[in-house]
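Quiz preparation item.
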């Protein structure tokens, strides 16, 4: 049985990765930079379901290290299920469910966007980023920690699917389901920041 998709959305959360590098306004095309979304199974028969891993490439990003601000967007249609523990056919079904109207509804909501309102350095190579994540037609303020710099930044963000109008998927009468909370791993390479045209 498959514990379909996870909202994946994310990312933006992904979104969030962005944090200052140290000195100048830059735009981002980021081949190595990534947001990885983790959705976990729960329920009485969770042993029959699957955890899910999704990659969300950054479509466009801008980091201004002088103003300490960041904006990042993810194309929902480019998000990809990469579950290693399921056969290709099952992975394709999970992908279809994720981009379909039950979860991301990528035709209606093609973009996930994060816009910072405040970026604060809390310690050497530690930053606190606060801003608005817009996902699935809803917007919510988030605050999260990022470490690293000046070449690479990493962080983790937790989101609840229901905060963005997404109902966690359940199967088998609710005995197998995806947890409401999902985890985003952020990994950003400042050196990949270029002159900001969309890829």
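Solution:
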């Amino acid at each position: 049985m498959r514990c379909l998709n996870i909202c994946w959305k994310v990312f933006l959360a992904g979104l969030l990765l962005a944090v200052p590098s140290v000195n100048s306004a830059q735009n981002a095309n980021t081949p190595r930079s990534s947001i990885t979304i983790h959705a976990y199974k729960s329920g009485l028969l969770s042993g029959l379901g699957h955890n899910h891993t999704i990659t969300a490439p950054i479509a466009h990003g801008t980091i201004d290290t002088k103003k300490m601000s960041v904006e990042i967007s993810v194309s929902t249609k480019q998000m990809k299920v990469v579950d290693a523990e399921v056969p290709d056919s099952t992975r394709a079904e999970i992908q279809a469910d994720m981009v379909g109207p039950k979860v991301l509804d990528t035709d209606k909501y093609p973009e996930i966007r994060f816009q910072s309102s405040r970026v604060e350095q809390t310690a050497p190579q530690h930053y606190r980023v606060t801003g608005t994540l817009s996902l699935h037609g809803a917007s919510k303020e988030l605050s999260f920690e990022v470490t690293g710099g000046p070449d690479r930044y990493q962080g983790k963000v937790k989101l609840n699917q229901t905060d963005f109008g997404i109902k966690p998927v359940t199967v088998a009468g609710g005995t197998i389901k995806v947890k409401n909370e999902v985890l985003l791993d952020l990994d950003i390479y400042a050196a990949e920041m270029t002159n900001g045209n969309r890829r």
